[in-house]
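Retro notes - structure team

What went well: the batch runner handled both jobs without manual restarts.
What didn't: labels got mixed up in the shared folder, which is why I'm recording both outputs here explicitly, each with its sequence directly above its tokens.

Job 1
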Amino acid sequence: MISIAVRHRLESGSHEFALDVDIESTSLRIALFGPSGAGKSMTLRCVAGLERPDAGRIRIDDEVYFDSRQGICLPPRARRVAYLQQDYALFPHLTVAQNIAFGLSKGWLNPAKTHLPPSARRWVQALELEPLLRSYPDKISGGQKQRVALARALSVGPRLLLLDEPMAAVDAQLRRKMRAELAALQAQLDIPVILITHDPEDVAALSEQVYRIQDGRIVGECTPAQLAASQARLS
């Protein structure tokens, strides 16, 4: 069960943006679909604990992440959320192995260059990253960076996977391959996944239920097939 009901207002100079979303779904894979600036990333940041809403409640299965009335606001690490960001947020000065192990390290020291805990090793093998472990991010491709970021995110044993425009930074040919890889990965995971995108093809490949978002509000709900049909009518 994914239950997100939050309100959050941001002001920057003369610009003001109000997020007011209400989502409740029993689907394991949902998508937030809408244009840039609609509030998709802000919603994910509230779920991940990187942004604190002004009011509302966030619950994933039986775990309450945030409840303004009860004064509950779990810190990001306690939420055990795997958050794959658009730019993958890899550390350029760390090797692939160190990037993957970073989320499992405690304290301020960087992980060892070669050692990987068993939980990380599992995803290194599943995502076929062994040949890249000693490489640095600037020496690997966009698709490889995505797999490294996924391995790092999944190594913590998350309760929830957040995908923020996961194909936005790659070309069309690689995008098709990465969609197929992500879809295969989702089939292995028994955790909820929230995808945000403005691409109907991402929705079709990676979601079961779609919430359309515009100007900070949910304006409709549909299936991926219904979204595809509506987009075809517009083209």
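Job 2
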Amino acid sequence: MSDPDVLLVGPYPPPFGGISAHVARLAHAVSADGMSVAVVNHFRTREANELIVADLARNPLRYWTVLRRLEPRVLHYHHARWSTLVAAALAVRRSTGTSVVTIHGRELEPFLESRLPGIAPLTRWALTSFDVLIAVSAEIERSLRPLGRTVSVIPAFIPADDDARLSPQANDFLNGGTNLLVAAYRLAVDQRGRLIYGLDTAIQSFTALAAARPRLRLAIFVASAPRSRAERDRLSRLIEAVDDDEVRRRIRVFHGEPLPPALRRATLYLRPTLTDGDAVSIREAIAAGVPVLASDVVARPPGVQCLPLEVPRWVTAIERRLDEGESAPVAAATGDPSDELIAIYRGLCRRSSREVAVPVP
């Protein structure tokens, strides 16, 4: 295709993670608004898609070689890792177009604060190479204030406009039960070996309640399939540690399934993460009218019940919400930020050169 109005550089599903869902829905929103759009996939593309013009396999050299030969009017990079940020910044510095970067998590903070020679200045240079900086949460925006640049806060959630379907296996499991739902992008661990998405907290909390509630089930949706035997075994060991065979059978793990149709069958959504960005899945649950319990590691949308990562507190909160039934309070649905992003794109497209100040709505 000819150079598009907007080039989105980010993950594209599958797998169905929060950021990949955001990129896919944003691409459709831009196209529906009448601008041409294309996607460069952070990963290797698994399914043919006319929107995707290249994939990068998270290889910094490919970011440099691919992005510098494309000439969109607006390039929007969704941050993945430090090395690819620097490579993308090098590409946009030589581009004749304009650029946007969205930071979805707090993983850049150690680089901005690093005492290793050159790391902090290079990180600041890379970020300020983009014309518009976006953070998906107020916490992330605060971490970027030392840059001395305006950072817009725009949540990543865009309402689903697709007809994604669950597999027959997921449908059968969710049919007729009282479903607790928890989601993870992958079975990653932190430096202390703890599961970042808190699946251990969810399993232990469910197990404490399940014997007295025979209809209660726990559905674990993992977007990305395990990449190693060690990663696969992490979750298996947690489930196998459940002593009661009947309770263990009411825990099921699904890989690569879309989350929105599952949320429509959920009684309660759990988000016991050790760290977080905007948590698109929380906003998807709110949009589906599902009550949410989440860890208190970051600020959450109004109406979400926040808890410390202590299993007894989660057991009590889950039990209270289940007893409330349909009377359980649900957070008010949030708006659609794609309109704000499209306004930024249109403002950037109107620019005649990179030297003109960027009018951020």
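One thing worth noting from job 2: The chain has two domains: 6-159+337-349, 168-327.
We'll revisit the folder naming next retro.
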